Amino acid sequence: MQAVLAIPINRAVAAYGPRRTALAGAVCAGLGPLLGSFCINSVPGLLITEGFLFGLGQALCFFSAAMLPATYFLRRRNLATGIVFSGAGVGGAVLSIVTDQLLQRLTPDWTFRAIALIVILGVTVFDRDLFKDIKFCLLLVGTSLALFPLFVPPFFIPLYATSIGMSTSAASLLVAGFNLASGAGRIGFGLGADAYLGSLNSLSLCLLLVGTSTLVIWPLATTLPPLCVFVAINGLCAGGMFSLIPGTIASIFGSARLGTVFSMTISFWSFGYLLGSPIAGYLLEAFGGPGRGAEAYQPAIFYAGGLSLTAAVLIIVVRLLQSRVLFKKL
């Protein structure tokens, strides 16, 4: 991939700079083994994920790093380049040892996922001192918990709709409605936070409504009208959560630390992205599966709603702590 894509990647570095190109490469290099973990028995799948996608990521990172020393050094340019290139050798050696140890302790698919996590976390600017701040810890845990149930409704609404006798067309329209509501929520809650409530208050409200609508409306939504109401409220608030996170972080930690705090927070969301919906799927199957009707979805619904409300409580605590800090300053 480095040889084939040398000219296009060189243009990308020139157009977007080495930092952005390297970040894109790190994402691709992390997605390669992550997606490859789901197709370890498929040679074509591994060629696409570990071959093409991981190779593309490595090529983007390589060219971004390879050209940087030459722009900073004149007299000792070759020595600087050699030191930079030696990092690839050291990193390759370390990764080989780590991979061997992982394979001895884990299955091949989880080894792939562990490597993906190592690569993706390597992108993050890590600040250990943040873990000494109770507000950061609560915000991190709260938003991470919120990610577990956040995608349960859009993934399960089509299946739920057909389980209670609706057509596949109606199920598709419900998902479309959820996505439209999510888009509207990102804008609407953003405007509301700026004009009236503030970021933390708006985020707390979003999570409260996500949890309440899941626990109160969804279990009773056995016909189209209440299901539409649930989809609209839940979609609006789920979308609003995403748009409010950067503003919330900036309001607590300041704009100067936004990049560090935001990247660390997003990194911990990977667990919710990866496990949130599968846990709900496991609960659905454990209680009879879609063929049993609406009753089989109850445990998954309570799981999603309960975690959303727990996340809301943690964010409300952050709001109270932040108010106390502001009151002391006044």
UniProtKB/TrEMBL annotation:
Residues 135-330 form the Major facilitator superfamily (MFS) profile domain. It holds the Pfam family MFS_1. The keyword Transmembrane applies. SUPFAM superfamilies: MFS general substrate transporter (SSF103473). It is a multi-pass membrane protein. It is found in: Membrane. The chain crosses the membrane at residues 21-40, 52-72, 79-98, 110-126, 138-157, 163-183, 195-218, 224-246, 258-280, 300-321. This is Major facilitator superfamily (MFS) profile domain-containing protein. It comes from Rhodotorula paludigena.
